[in-house]
Amino acid sequence: MYYPIMIELDHKKVVVFGGGRVAYRKCEAILKCGAKVSIISKEFIEDFYLLEKKYSDFCILIKDKYQQEYIHDCYLVVAATSSNQTNQEISQCCKQRKILCNVVNSLEKCDYIVPSMVRRGDLLISVSTSGKSPFLSQKIKKELEKKYPQEYEEYLNFLGQIRNKVLQTNKTQEEKRKILKEILNFSLEELKEWM
């Protein structure tokens, strides 16, 4: 059974093995979290070169096959090669070194799995079926994207600002809690007026 957790990846060393579409999606999500990512593959789809350019200080493409040396001193590993045998070798090496490894398409070899996510700034909603039905996760994710549109990023920022102001008042704890609960019923426009 999986324990849900959010990991701080800012400036952490992450290694991704693989140069295809699945590896690309993993890399893109990891780079958005501020990690320093080395991507190792003999070949890369074109999108990787755009990713390397966009995240030039955080992303490096290395044209090579899997070698244990690349795993040295890293925080997290993703094994997304087209070879099940290579992915298994990567997983075993990570286990020996006590490094968390995600092996795409092999739940039993994974130390962690990545849920489907809806991100609206600091609002992060994740959905997981523990690998039983990725398509169901995607379906629920799409429903959540409709329910929580991009405006929720701004909405959450206003809630955070109001919370800070309320906490600095001389009101009792109970009064503060009441105000903070009540403002959840406000629309984005009403929050802006409240500010």
Please outline what is shown here.
With 195 residues, the protein is of the alpha/beta class. The protein contains 7 helices and 7 strands, in the order E-H-E-H-E-E-H-E-E-E-H-H-H-H. The protein is elongated and about 60 Å long.
Describe the overall structure.
- The chain has 2 domains: 1-114, NAD(P)-binding Rossmann-like Domain (Rossmann fold), CATH 3.40.50.720; 151-194.
- It starts with 12 loop residues before the first strand and ends with a helix.
- The protein has 7 helices and 7 strands; from the N terminus they run E-H-E-H-E-E-H-E-E-E-H-H-H-H.
- With 195 residues, the chain is of the alpha/beta class.
- It is elongated, with a radius of gyration of 21 Å.
- It is 42% helix and 17% strand.
- The strands form 2 sheets. Strands 3-2-1-4-5 form a 5-stranded parallel sheet, with helices on both faces. It has a two-stranded antiparallel sheet with strand order 6-7.
Features:
195 residues, alpha/beta, Rossmann fold, five-stranded parallel beta sheet, ferrochelatase activity, Met8-like, porphyrin biosynthesis
Count of individual helical segments: 7
Anisotropy-based shape: elongated
> How many β-strand runs?
7
Q: β content, as a range?
A: 15-25%
Oligomeric organization of the protein chains = single chain
Helix content: 40-55%
Q: Strand order, main sheet: write it out.
A: 3-2-1-4-5
Write the CATH architecture name of the largest domain. Answer: 3-Layer(aba) Sandwich
- Mean pLDDT comes to 92
Pfam families: NAD_binding_7 (PF13241), SirC_C (PF22440), Sirohm_synth_M (PF14824)
Catalytic activity: precorrin-2 + NAD(+) = sirohydrochlorin + NADH + 2 H(+)
Pathway: Porphyrin-containing compound metabolism; siroheme biosynthesis; sirohydrochlorin from precorrin-2: step 1/1
Protein name: precorrin-2 dehydrogenase
